[in-house]
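[09:14] KT: can someone run the structure on this one? pasting the chain below
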Amino acid sequence: MSKTITIGVTDLSFHRVTAAIIAHVLSDMGFDVTRRYASHQANFENLKAGDVDMLSSAWLPSSHGIYKADVEELEPLIELGLHYEPYAHWGVPDYVPTEAISQVSDLLKPHVLSRTIKHIQGINPGAGISRFSIEMMEKYHLNEAGYHFHTGSEEDCFGAFERAVANKEWLIVPLWKPQFLHHKFNIREIADPKGLLGTVDRAVLLLRQDQAYKFTSEQRVQLDNLCFSNEIIAELDYKVSREGQDIDVVTREWLMK
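[09:31] RB: done, structure tokens below
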């Protein structure tokens, strides 16, 4: 009889892609794998409650460190692998001249104010990029200048960017790597001199220590050796999210290369 394992997956497209790869690896080890999807905070709450055995993927230390610390008040966690090295950033389409916008404070220039869409569309409130962006709005005085940051769904954020690019409009997109837009578009990062967007994180698999007994030492090493990249995850994410390919087929094919 196969052992069972439940993975908590933050319900965003690139997290789903990474978790699909891990699910294949676990299945090949002989596990009966269940993927449970939830928002950022709920995913960690499920890990803390023991409703999931492991979580894919935690961004540490900047984006998800506070959530990990909360879980570890109750249950120690084991970090496994280096799935990729993510980071949050604000970007503009590459047709926006660098001399016009190269850093966040440039958004206050009169000619930039007159050209740029004032609606800055983010994703859900629990995401690191959303927390960081809310602080950016305040510390760079963007609210006072007429900009507005809004949380929403993935498609709210990505669709707003794609529509603006189709019309060659200027806009700011609060984004991160890896994300499928980077596979198709050249998105130029703008500097954040105040350092409010956090650092380059480590994306890792978190395993509850009380569930470690389910794995042999060899299996733990195999999971710890899993290493992808921002570019690989962005490409697979694009195939699923924009080309409509099946996530389990795409990720299995990648593993078999």
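[09:33] KT: thanks! The two ends are 29 Å apart (CA to CA).
[09:34] RB: yep, looked fine to me
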